[in-house]
Specification:
Layout (H helix, E strand, L loop, with lengths): L1 E3 L7 H7 L6 E9 L1 H10 L3 H13 L7 E4 L2 E4 L2 E9 L5 E7 L4 H18 L9 E8 L20 E4 L3 E2 L4 E10 L5 H16 L5
């Protein structure tokens, strides 16, 4: 992670306009077709939530704005991405776990299983550190929701993806999601492109 001059980036105008805005977060909603992802999960005996996190990572690395993040009034640049997931802990509470993104599904799955188990048993969060731009996720799988607008406390500016229970249609299965991001980091077009990339990754899921 390193600080960069916003004026030397294509986010200069956005930084000037949104960095100190009282509510700089934007949320987009999209319904994904997860038919292939669900089938792949069952066939390969892989956790659906892990696959969603991996597809989110694969989509994010295609969008250069994901490597930027406003932190403490500064614009920071990263060279690595991680995906955060919520974990149920053995004491009946929840905690969070950062998983470093890997292009290789087997490597990401191995880290996901190891780190989420560690968090669940230790009842302590796991963070990857300042070298990673972290994408937050929350899976409310027991809730039939269309999406969520997360709170903004001015502490965390990280992008965030939320989903609930998937819905079975006649010939496909769909999943409504919401994607929240800081307007300094990216514009609506970048976010919409990310969601299109996410759908494409889901449609073409395979071992790499």
């Amino acid at each position: 992670m390193k600080e960069i001059d916003p004026k030397q980036t294509n986010r200069a105008a956005a930084f000037e306009m949104w960095m100190n805005a009282p509510m700089p977060m934007v949320t987009l909603f999209k319904t994904l077709d997860i038919t292939r992802l669900l089938s792949f999960s069952r066939r390969e005996k892989l956790k659906f939530n892990m696959l969603m996190c991996w597809c989110i990572g694969r989509a994010a690395v295609q969008i250069e704005e994901f490597y930027l993040l406003p932190v403490g009034g500064k614009l920071m640049e990263y060279d690595k991405i991680a995906v955060n997931t919520v974990v149920n802990t053995k004491d009946g509470n929840i905690s969070t776990c950062d998983i470093p993104f890997s292009e290789e599904l087997q490597a990401f799955n191995s880290d996901y299983l190891r780190l989420t188990k560690q968090v669940g048993e230790a009842c302590q969060l796991h963070e990857v550190g300042d070298d990673y731009m972290v994408i937050g996720t929350s899976a409310l799988v027991g809730c039939d929701i269309d999406g969520a607008v997360n709170i903004y406390a001015g502490v965390f500016n990280n992008p965030f993806v939320i989903w609930g229970k998937y819905r079975k249609k006649l010939f496909k299965t769909v999943l409504p999601i919401s994607f929240q991001f800081h307007h300094t980091q990216m514009d609506g077009g970048h976010a919409a492109n990310f969601l299109e990339c996410l759908q494409n990754e889901i449609n073409n899921i395979k071992f790499y």
